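Sequence and fold:
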Amino acid sequence: MNIVSSVSSAIERFHDVKSTMNLQKLVDDVSFGLDIFEFRYLEADGIIRNSMFKEEIGTVLTSKSFIETLQGERRISSFFFEVRDYVDVMSIYYPIYSNNKLIGIIDLAVDMSEYDLTKSLINNAAILHRQTDILNLLKAINGSITNSITILNKTDINDFLHAYIDTAKDIKQISIVNNEDKIFISSSKYLIGKKLTDEDSPKPGMNMIDGELTYLTVVNSHLFDDNYLTKLMLLTDATNYAHHEKQLLTTALITSIIALLFALFTSRLIYYTAIEQSRKERERLEELVSIRTKEIELLSKTDELTGLWNRRYLEESLDTEFKRAKRYNHDISIMMIDLDHFKHINDTYGHMAGDEVLRQMSSRIKGCQRETDFVARYGGEEIVVILPETDIKTATEIADTILKSIAKEPVLFESFTIEVTTSIGISNMSPEHLNYSMIFAEADEALYSAKANGRNRVEVYNKKI
């Protein structure tokens, strides 16, 4: 029974190594920048084999979205948005194939709480970049799974058992019998497929086989599946047992050690192969995610219509530039630009024409900016320019250049020719300014004066005494 116990442990360990892959570590290693909400690896029939939640391993996934995907209501490997545990997530069921056969499915959900899912996110650039990163992660997991399966498939349990008994001289044969009394795994391959009830099969207990006294042990077990009863059949040399009982115990210990070493070697082979692959994939994804992060950061600071910086980034930059100028006692000027009669353009030619006017005017303003200037859309048709290290005289010259550039040529939209002019207000920092809001308000007041004085002109803030 000591030998039976050690053999059972060896086979169970072999099966555990062959059926379990530490995908969660791979996910942790390569999921840079992705807030993963749920991760599972399922067999093709929906049984969960790997999960962030250990308690659900071995159960069947029965979520509505998974069933819909299996039934063909949703294309597998496509992204979709749903709510899981009251959290908005972007989900995907990603198939794993081996030799064109579906062998598994990855269930991956990423936290999307920062987005408003009531709006259409189909063409959202940040979402599209995130989906690209998710697909790269899934490809890395796919490679790890198929690589591990390839390695493990080369390690046949029948060969394992044959090698096992070669190392233990007192063990003659190891076989596993199914519930139909048919041998389906054996160290002696010629026995595979035979039934225990066959006349030439040895009977439990002492037997004389090929002139040697042997002992056949048959015990019930749940190898491979706790719900599936199998029998472990062990044939040992009874001669040594009869004369050297202690030697049998030593053999049991040696075989247990060999089994453990073999299982450890197999698991290390899988582990280090997966780790090396994940390391290479991690390095590639690190570079990719770094690029994606910069792109997403840029998108979060950019106005979608005009390509200028957006209001949020404008306010951050105003605060930073004002503090820098204040600290070092340097010049800084603020320019407020507003397109004249923009509402009339929208009402007359339509909002699409208005959008085109904004795009072209923004392009002309950017064409007049210097390398250190900062141009942002404040809102509607209002554009703000921050001019660091710039006195009021230079700021006025730049404003005149912008004014002429905008009025120089009309905007052509479909069959329309749209004349566009602008009004510009400028203010320069002075010692009494305590924050950027004060100089910003002055530029706005100067803009109001430009409009009141006839539009298509530049006005510098004039402090009232």
Remarks:
- Residues 18-151 form a domain with the Beta-Lactamase fold (CATH 3.30.450.20).
- Confidence is low (pLDDT under 50) at residues 17-21.
